[in-house]
Amino acid sequence: MVEVTDLSVDYYQQQKVVPALREISFNIPRGSTCAIIGPSGCGKSTLLYVLSGLLGKFNGKVLVDTEPVAPLRRQTALILQDYGLLPRKKVFDNVGLGLEIRGVKGEQKHAVVKRVLAEVGLWELQDRYPSQLSGGQRQRIGIARALALEPDLLLMDEPFSSLDALTRERLQRQMLQIWQSKRMTIVLVTHSIEEAIFLGQQIIVMSGHPGRILDIVDNPRVGEPGYRKSAQFHTLTTVLREKLVP
Ligand SMILES: Nc1ncnc2c1ncn2[C@@H]1O[C@H](COP(=O)(O)OP(=O)(O)OP(=O)(O)O)[C@@H](O)[C@H]1O
Q: Which atom of ligand 1 is nearest to the CA of 189?
């Protein structure tokens, strides 16, 4: 689904080159999950922006569903850290925003918004404004808005980082259920080793700035009942910690 070959990205700041990513190569099979983890500033968000098509200036080859990555690809959804909800629009309209932009209106829009809000368990909050929601609820609304577009590629930039530990675990479980029922391809940027292991069938470990790939770890037990409490989960936590903090 995603094929990245020799990707390098530079930013330019006051005529100085800021190297962000160097010689990144990996593949993500369709319908699988991938977590990207690495130290602050190593280029994780940059990598996600490239995959979303928002950042078009790069060297190397990036294919999404066998096509060169392009902006506004219809079936790619990006969830940013701040959820991107519009404060003056009610939950219903926030969730329906992407559909509106794509020309889906009226009854059809209503049915989709209702379905995805029910999927994240928040249909009853449809008339609230974002400021009237908890952080976890806002995040679920952000997820619902992405789901409304029926993405086959869901990109998430530290989606649960600002939440308390319990809410975070609950939303991780919910994300896993959504993935198990829909089997879209998910790419998740995270600072959390636990989150990477809980959600990423493939874990891309990046070095510090400029970001290179240190290792790609296979994690096939994602989604198995009781995985978080298993010995293998804990062993992998230690392995990843040693890679990140040698
Ligand atoms: N617009 C920009 N201009 C210049 N440099 C930038 C720009 N955006 C990001 N950078 C630099 O590129 C590098 C990668 O940034 P990026 O935000 O992708 O890292 P990150 O791994 O997501 O960081 P964090 O984990 O702290 O969110 C950093 O060193 C950052 O300072």
A: 22
Angle between helices 135-147 and 165-182 (to 10 degrees): 10
How far, in Å, from the CA of 40 to the mean position of ligand 1? 8
Here the tokens at position 192 are: 């959390």
Q: Is the CB of 190 under 6 A from ligand 1?
A: no
Q: In angstroms, what is the span from residue 204 Cα to ligand 1's centroid? A: 17
Cα distance between residue 194 and residue 186, in whole Å: 17
For 2-75+151-244, CATH number? Answer: 3.40.50.300
The atom number, within ligand 1, closest to the CA of 42 reads 21
Query: Ligand 1 in contact with 19 (CB < 6 A)?
Result: no
Say yes or no: CB of residue 200 within 6 Å of ligand 1. Answer: no
Is residue 49 within 8 A of residue 55, CB to CB? The reply is yes
**pLDDT reading at 119 higher than 90:** no
pLDDT (tens digit per residue) in 231-244: 999 999 999 999 99
Q: In angstroms, rounded to a whole number, what is the distance separating the alpha carbons of residues 144 and 101?
A: 16
Mean local confidence (pLDDT), 155-175:
86
Domain boundaries, the chain: 2-75+151-244, 83-150
Pairing assessment for the beta strands 2-13 and 16-28 based on DSSP bridges: antiparallel
Report the complex ipTM. Answer: 0.96
Over residues 177-202, the pLDDT tens digits come to 989 988 999 999 999 999 999 999 99
